[in-house]
Batch of 4 targets.
Target 1
Amino acid sequence: MVLFCIICRDKANAQEARAAARAEHLAFVDTFGAQVKVAGPFLDDAGGMIGSLIIMDFADKAAAQAFVDGDPYGKAGVFGGVDILPWKVTRGALG
């Protein structure tokens, strides 16, 4: 398995769509159990959610892409951009 950083940036004015899809998104992420190493929203200076970072354990990038494709936030049109990057831990609690 390889860790992947999934970096999502919200579209402008996506707060309403994000709020509407939040419970479904969280339930979806929870179905991946221990594959989820760390997850949470990016915040603007006022504390509003403007994106997401999820670090997960997948067999390959295709599996990470399948996760992104199934994410309710993506289906709701919340994200303006998503990057999927393989990541090698060299320090810290995930290493």
Target 2
Amino acid sequence: MPLTLSPVRTVVCCPNCGSPDTEETSRFGATACKALRRCLACREPFEQVKEL
């Protein structure tokens, strides 16, 4: 079985309002395992812990 690598798109919901309408503002946050995101509904920034 051939292995194909493609980007996995996961929906990241806002921890403040629960909206799935978020955008990544920075690939790396305070540590390499976190990304910075912003909610487009409530406009609040938040950190996302990246998946392996």
Target 3
Amino acid sequence: MQIPQPAENEVWYFREMRPKDAQAIFEINSDEVTCRFTVLERQQSLPAIHSWIDYYPSYKRHGFGIWVIAHKQTHRALGLCGLRVRKDLNNAIDLSYRMHPAWRNLGIASKAVKVCVAFGFTVLKLEQILAQVHKENLISARILAKLGFEKGDLNGIWQNWILIQPTQKEK
């Protein structure tokens, strides 16, 4: 599996999730802000997160998935970001990201999203990428709008944001 990587001057990199990431992922998922804007029913306890990491089939099945945003020196998880196949949305490719509270508001999420989007279009040759964001999550909406995502349908509390491959827009 090929994993996208940011420019060399960054302090982070992407890698697959590992069992030792469970504590950091638990801290991300149990954070008040994360809980307000996501639904992570199966990832609300440390044992559940260990099971999720152990089972996570996307890397082998699709060649991509949700990656850990890891600190280059400590290798600790700063956040999660990646692309996933959403069976509940007709196999749409969905962008997912969330940051550890200690690493928010530093521009890392914006850069990670940008790298994942570029990977999706250049390596995976996707025609479009979907991002479902809680309608009150204005920070994520701002990140997506800056990257060219366009606001789509509102699906309950979820605002769909869609980015179409630039070459597809011209057709």
Target 4
Amino acid sequence: MVKILLAEDDLTMVNLLETLLKMDGFEVIALDADDDVPAALQRECPDVLLLDVHLSNQNGLEILDAIRSSEQICETRIVMISGSNVKDECMKHGADGFLLKPFMPDDLIQMLKHKAKPWR
């Protein structure tokens, strides 16, 4: 089973993503908006991190930079999501993928399956 760590601050979006992903056979761990994402990565060891660019009190790009600079978790597959088209910026910071909100559920499922594939 592919394990997804979800860092998103919109509770409606969290509930929708949890339901959608669990229905498709993923294991989902949703973080609180203010959680320490790098620490959660070390603790949970997910196959993919689904990370919102704009968290309420945190910057997703700064979190991405911290992850990529950490020897313990730098290889984590990371898919960034945002309501702003910041794909190029996310990819420059080291994201493995990007989805612009609102996205189609099938696009998310396919991207997560593709990004998790090397670890299955």
